[in-house]
Amino acid sequence: MRLHEYQAKSIFSDGGIPIPPSGLANSVETVLEETNRIGYPAVIKAQVHVGGRGKAGGITLVQNDNEAEIAANKILGMDLKGYLVYEVLVEQAIDFVDEIYLGVTLDRSSGMPVAMVSSEGGIDIEQVASSTPDAISKTYVNPLLGLSDSQAKTAVLDAGISPTLTDKVANILLSLYNIWETSDATETEINPLMVSKDGDVIATDAVLNIEDDALFRQKKLADLRDIRNNNKLESKADLYGFNYVRLDGNIGIIGNGAGLVMTTLDLVDHYGGKPANFLDIGGGANSVRVENALEILFEDENVDSILFNIFGGITRGDEVAQGINDALENFDTLPKPIVVRLDGTNAKEGMEILNTDHLTVESTLESAVQRAIELASKGGD
């Protein structure tokens, strides 16, 4: 479950992490009330569960009432990547001299929590990891012991943060880890943690995602779920009984089994692509379910290519192939390019059924991933 930025910041603040003065607004009038209370310059931020808000026009810096009114009229009610903006966070703009990244998540390969620090804050951390991996300090944490003071300070120093900021940043990292642990979070992140001219450190963004399976013991957090913006794709996935999570990328993923889908997502990321979703059609999926899954991704405007990764066990390759063919028959032209990788039970029979005039078939997962990324980079052409 994803929290809005303003919700995450409230929890961060309660945990001792400094945040800028801010207020939530749902109308032009309340935006102006908040900007006049906080003062200019101010930042107006769309509160939606999607990344890339700034590039999509959902974040605006304003200097006066006129600019604030224009921004509020533009952002409130806008459709931002398929999400309707109901509220905005009005926040004091920080005059900063540097930006830092802090994050805590679970490293699946080691099975341990990992605390991350980078001096290259303010940009996509995946981009940093790809281009300059040495710029990220990673500290693996024994979950029985938790993150220690010495570990936090070492992580900050290893990231090349100024020694004058070590104690302040380390304390925030400790707070962030504590929030991650006590909230049953899948990830928590500050990007950026801004450094002001006075040497203060302030969290100007906040990410806090909660493990769905732990919500039964996180009642207060569960009550924060915003269902107003469940988009039509998520609602349709619920109707079809799919395990579906919409992400921020442009490569649609369909697979059978959560582990296989997660592996596919990781491999897409490894080769420099960005997954658009997690969609598990489950074991034993028949052609109708396969067709329904394709229907969801065809309707996702963010998807530029679709990668279908099926390993036949309970799910037979010929059934999957028939489902793909059935789905394609409902379209005069193929709305998205599809790359298919079939393996396992009846994979050979499935390959023979597939209409290869309208899709690309790859023999290995690696080649299928790279082909899907290539097609997505061309905008699906």
Topology of helices and strands:
Layout: H1 5-14, E1 22-25, H2 28-38, E2 42-46, E3 59-62, H3 65-75, E4 79-80, E5 83-84, E6 88-92, E7 96-107, E8 112-118, H4 125-131, E9 136-140, H5 149-158, H6 166-182, E10 185-196, E11 201-203, E12 207-210, H7 219-222, H8 232-240, E13 243-246, E14 251-255, H9 258-270, E15 277-280, H10 287-299, E16 305-312, H11 317-328, E17 338-344, H12 347-353, E18 360-361, H13 365-377
Parallel strand pairs: 14-16, 16-17, 17-18
Antiparallel strand pairs: 1-6, 2-3, 2-6, 4-5, 7-8, 7-10, 8-9, 10-11, 10-12, 13-15
Helix pairs in contact: 2-3, 5-6, 8-10, 10-11, 11-12
Supply database-style keywords.
381 residues; 4-stranded antiparallel sheet; 25% strand; alpha+beta; Dna Ligase, domain 1; 36% helix; globular; 6-stranded antiparallel sheet; 13 helices; 3 domains; D-amino Acid Aminotransferase, Chain A, domain 1
Characterise this structure:
This protein folds into three domains: 72 residues, ATP-grasp fold, A domain (Dna Ligase, domain 1, 2-Layer Sandwich), CATH 3.30.1490; 127 residues, ATP-grasp fold, B domain (D-amino Acid Aminotransferase, Chain A, domain 1); 146 residues, Succinyl-CoA synthetase domains (Rossmann fold, 3-Layer(aba) Sandwich). With 381 residues, it is of the alpha+beta class. The strands form five sheets. Strands 7, 8, 9, 10, 11 and 12 form a six-stranded antiparallel β-sheet that branches. A four-stranded antiparallel β-sheet has the order 1-6-2-3, with helices on one face. Helix 2 packs across helix 3.
